[in-house]
Automatic annotation (TrEMBL):
Signal peptide: 1-21
Alphabetical UniProt keywords: Signal
Family annotation (SUPFAM superfamilies): Periplasmic binding protein-like I
Protein name listed in UniProt: Sugar ABC transporter periplasmic protein
Length: 196
């Protein structure tokens, strides 16, 4: 009787290990193969988001530009009904390293999207590639707002936003962000309005 219990226990352990391995492989494959997370729909990939409800959205904003732009975005998200978490790089010894760590921390928090303001990917290119790859591996879309230089690997970000308040062609910030989060058809370069 004891040997039967041992066999059942070994079988259960094996099934648990196989199930865990399958789950880990699924998580490791969170990003589409040849396109950016959040930009698969426009490329007619077979990978598509099932949609995230606005009430469940948390946008991570990483500020590398002036605080005025950061505040404008944060106020617009609040006014348009999207929650946002902010990573400031002001008054730090190495703003790029602080921002890169901020991206990694936001990935660990599993935000809906990461918005980086004023990115210059030519400054510490390897560090940026690693941070943005972590977001990609985590299945989190990255939006660049007014980037100075975007990464050369376009799979690391879904779209760039240019702020043009008052432009008749500008999409509302929340709508542009939700189109990326929900992988709806969108341009890679989006003109947005941050007026709330």
């Amino acid at each position: 009787m004891l040997w039967i219990q041992r066999d059942v226990y070994k079988t259960l352990r094996t099934v648990s290990a196989v199930t865990l391995a399958a789950l880990m492989m699924a998580v490791a494959g969170c990003h589409p193969h040849d396109v950016a997370v959040g930009d698969t729909h426009s490329n007619q990939s077979s990978v598509a988001s099932s949609g995230v409800q606005r009430a469940d959205v948390m946008v991570g904003v990483v500020g590398l530009a002036d605080a005025t732009t950061d505040k404008l975005l944060l106020d617009a998200y609040a006014g348009q009904g999207l929650k946002a978490s902010y990573v400031s790089t002001r008054d730090t010894d190495d703003p790029n390293q602080t921002a890169q760590q901020g991206v990694k921390d936001l990935v660990d928090r599993v935000v809906s999207a990461i918005v980086i303001v004023g990115l210059d990917a030519t400054v510490d290119e390897q560090g940026w590639n690693e941070a943005l790859q972590k977001a990609r591996d985590g299945g989190i879309p990255v939006i660049l707002v007014e980037p100075l230089h975007a990464p050369s690997d376009e799979r690391l970000y879904a779209a760039t936003f240019t702020i043009r308040d008052g432009s008749i062609n500008a999409a509302a910030l929340d709508k542009g962000t939700m189109s990326v989060i929900n992988d709806a058809s969108h341009s890679r370069q989006i003109t947005i309005s941050a007026s709330s």
